[in-house]
């Protein structure tokens, strides 16, 4: 168990213990980096990619072994049983033993298929490394997305509870006005209806929170602890550099999916050359050293043993002459695979460019949206206060107050979601350019706090 994993698990145990005890002590919240350490060892999708890379890395030594010498030892032992009758002699036992052994060393001198196979293996390792990098980026994105979803869901639950509290207060005010004869029963019914609807929204928000926590648990392998949240005063980062063309160029050249697709094209090219090389001769040097021992024979009148040692060095040439059309079919198949790989490579480049464009636009539009929502919230608070005062003076009706409160809480929820969506769009932009790493999670952690500022959704307007 790593130190980081142990630290996170101990923190989770402490969170659960304090929750069971009902203690009022502050509990340290986990952040993105803590959960990332858990996800590295617990997420099955990422683990599958890691093992796939380990498998691919063995392709190079396997392919290179076809170019190295091989040594084979063979041996056998036998006993012959026989009885032989010679002219004018009685039948005699002619049983004897025979032992044979040999060492054969083979050194390939020219095997073009093996040489090309080694190049293909190197390209396959490059492809697997790119796929692993893509899986690592995907893990970061999935973790961040689900982490943000949990935090946003928690804020929505708090906002829904606050809205219920505000509506209940307005319901009491409407009843007092009705009893005083300055409001109609319709105001009471309208407020009560909206309060009941807010209660239903609390239930829906709790369901969303549970679903988000379950999705996060599927990645980290354990129940999520208390999570750090974005500081209210945090300034959302903008892309650096600010030139979209730079991001698109990086995406086309360095996106892991593009790199993997490019390696697939190289693999297909090697496969074409390998198929063609099967028509070429192969040349091997073969050196043999062996022994042969026999204690007798079955044909000679007199037994005599033999013990032979022999050495032999030769060059063997093998030339394929007829193969029934299989090589032609292999070449055609390899060409079709190359065409497919080239199409996939072009598709990967276009998808990377599209992802970079969309993420870049999402970051800047998200920052603008957050600024607009913050302005709307400030105005919405003033609107709620003004409508409440006007309602007390009789110049505003009950529905004005209810509409202003509903608009404010809806805007608050939109703001929470927009802030985290903007952060996530920044991660997606770096992933499209092939630059996303664990360091980006640490940078986001600097914007988080275990005890963030009070949620404006929890404040009564």
Question: What features would you describe in this structure?
Answer:
By secondary structure, the chain is of the alpha+beta class. It folds into two domains: 37-67 and 111-279 and 327-458, Outer membrane efflux proteins (OEP), CATH 1.20.1600; 69-85 and 92-110 and 281-319, Outer membrane efflux proteins (OEP) (Single Sheet). The protein contains eleven helices and eight strands. The protein has a four-stranded antiparallel beta sheet, with no helix packed on it. Helix 2 (32-42) crosses helix 5 and helix 3 (44-57) runs antiparallel to helix 5 (112-179).
Helix content: 55-70%
Distance between the termini: 49 Å
Gross morphology is elongated
List the secondary-structure elements in sequence, H or E.
Answer: HHHHEEEEHHEHHEEHHHE
CATH-scheme architecture of the largest domain: Up-down Bundle
Structural class: alpha+beta
How much is the average pLDDT?
Answer: 85
Strand content: 5-15%
Specify the CATH class of the largest domain: Mainly Alpha
CATH superfamily of the largest domain: Outer membrane efflux proteins (OEP)
Q: Give the low-confidence spans.
A: 1-27, 454-461
Global Rg: 39 Å
Individual helix count: 11
By CATH, the topology of the largest domain is Outer membrane efflux proteins (OEP)
């Amino acid at each position: 168990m790593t130190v980081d994993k142990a630290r996170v698990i101990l923190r989770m145990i402490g969170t659960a213990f304090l929750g069971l005890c009902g203690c009022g002590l502050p509990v340290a919240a986990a952040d993105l980096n803590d959960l990332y350490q858990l996800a590295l060892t617990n997420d099955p999708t990422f683990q599958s990619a890691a093992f796939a890379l380990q498998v691919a890395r063995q392709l190079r030594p396997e392919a290179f072994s076809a170019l190295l010498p091989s040594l084979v030892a063979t041996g056998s032992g036998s006993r012959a049983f026989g009885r032989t009758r010679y002219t004018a002699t009685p039948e005699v036992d002619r049983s004897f033993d025979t032992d044979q052994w040999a060492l054969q060393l083979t050194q390939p001198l020219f095997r073009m298929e093996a040489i090309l196979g080694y190049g293909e293996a190197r390209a396959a390792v490059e492809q697997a490394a790119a796929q692993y990098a893509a899986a690592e980026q995907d893990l970061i994105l999935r973790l961040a997305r689900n982490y943000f979803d949990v935090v946003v869901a928690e804020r929505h639950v708090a906002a829904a509870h606050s809205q219920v509290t505000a509506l209940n207060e307005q319901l009491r005010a409407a009843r007092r006005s009705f009893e005083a004869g300055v409001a109609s029963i319709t105001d009471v019914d309208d407020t009560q209806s909206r309060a009941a609807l807010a209660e239903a929204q609390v239930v829906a928000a709790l369901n969303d929170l549970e679903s988000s926590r379950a999705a996060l648990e599927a990645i980290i392998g354990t129940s999520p602890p208390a999570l750090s949240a974005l500081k209210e005063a945090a300034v959302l980062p903008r892309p650096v550099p600010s030139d979209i063309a730079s991001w698109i160029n990086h995406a086309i050249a360095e996106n892991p999916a593009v790199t993997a697709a490019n390696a697939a094209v190289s693999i297909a090219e090697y496969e074409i050359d390998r198929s063609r090389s099967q028509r070429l001769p192969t040349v091997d040097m073969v050196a043999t050293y062996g022994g042969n021992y026999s204690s007798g024979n079955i044909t000679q009148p007199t037994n005599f043993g033999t013990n032979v040692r022999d050495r032999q060095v030769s060059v063997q040439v093998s030339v394929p002459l007829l193969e029934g059309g299989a090589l032609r079919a292999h070449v055609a198949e390899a060409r079709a695979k190359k065409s497919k790989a080239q199409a996939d490579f072009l598709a990967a480049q276009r998808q990377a460019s599209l992802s970079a464009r969309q993420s870049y636009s999402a970051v800047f539009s998200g920052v603008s949206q957050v600024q607009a929502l913050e302005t709307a919230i400030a105005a919405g608070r003033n609107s709620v206060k003004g409508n409440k005062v006007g309602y007390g003076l009789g110049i505003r009706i009950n529905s004005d107050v209810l509409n202003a409160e509903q608009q404010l809480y809806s805007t608050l929820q939109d703001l929470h979601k927009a802030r985290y969506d903007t952060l996530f769009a920044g991660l997606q932009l770096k992933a499209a350019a092939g630059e996303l790493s664990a360091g980006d999670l640490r940078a986001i952690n600097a914007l988080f706090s275990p005890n963030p500022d009070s949620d404006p959704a929890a404040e009564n307007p």
